[in-house]
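Structure tokens
________________
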Amino acid sequence: MSATVFEGRCIGMRTRLVAACAVLILAVGGGAAWWLAHPHRARTELVLYGNIDLRQVELAFNGSERVAAVLAVEGDRVTRGQVLARLDTGRLGPQAAQAAAEVAAQQQVVDKLHNGSRPEEIDQAKANVAAAMADAADTRAKYDRLQVLTQSSQGRALSRQDLDDAKSAADAAAARLAVSQQALRLEQIGPRKEDIAQGEAQLKADRAQLALLQSELNDAVLTAPLNATVRSRLMEPGEMASPQKPAFSLAITDPKWVRAYVTETDLGDVHPGMKASVTADAFPHRIFAGWVGFISPVAEFTPKTVQTTDLRTSLVYEIRVFVTDPNDDLRLGMPTTVHLPLPAASGSPHGSP
């Protein structure tokens, strides 16, 4: 190769190198100029995306009877305590009435035991004692006269059988007097405490049976546990109800919340009670007020125990932003956007000091 050719190639390489350096300098200078013209600003809000969520209730009867009436359909807004359906009570009603009558009867028995004997009953017992005493005295007198007569006639005035009959009559009258006296004493003492306890125990058992039947009667009426919207009507009149078979599916309209996720790097900017605003594509000109009500203490996706800084920043945590929706416009699963205002003093891209 001649010296002239070699020198020409060197000059060409130097020219290209100078041109590349000039382009690099211009690019760096342009970037610096743009950076100076557009100073970096901290974010003023944290924007998250999620879906409307709410609680649901599977409502079933607490008894096994045939459904008599269903009073709500899908889409109905029901209030707490509103009757939704009824069961047939053709068998439970008479059973409850019978149990109520048994309670009333046993209550009278217990009251009688507590009140004890009436004065009239004690007077009657005293009269019985007086009568028995008179009869005993009369039969004893007859026996005594016959005995004297037998002794005076040396047994010829009457037979031995007549004397024995008189003695038996006197003894029987004395026994009846003793019975009447004991009856009077019992009337004066009143009923035994064991009898009172037994009567009260039977009354409690009767009342428990009545309460059970009344509870079954109450369970035959299915009511809304709180304000909600009927999502599904799952039973019809004539079907057999059971606690394992739901009759309605209810959507609780309050509270509602947005289920969203925040990254680990933004987690420090979010705290419970933080105010929020929620928007939905279905209502582009409305803003729903809300607040952060829950922050999950556990990451949704947990990496291996040995973490790198890249893995740590990929963690996400569930949050729930509760929404005020008095007109019940937001529906289950509706996509929404959550705006969380960040502190004005935030000076870094992630709002941390």
About this structure: The chain is about 45% helix and 25% strand. Residues 1-39 form one domain. The chain has a mean pLDDT of 80.
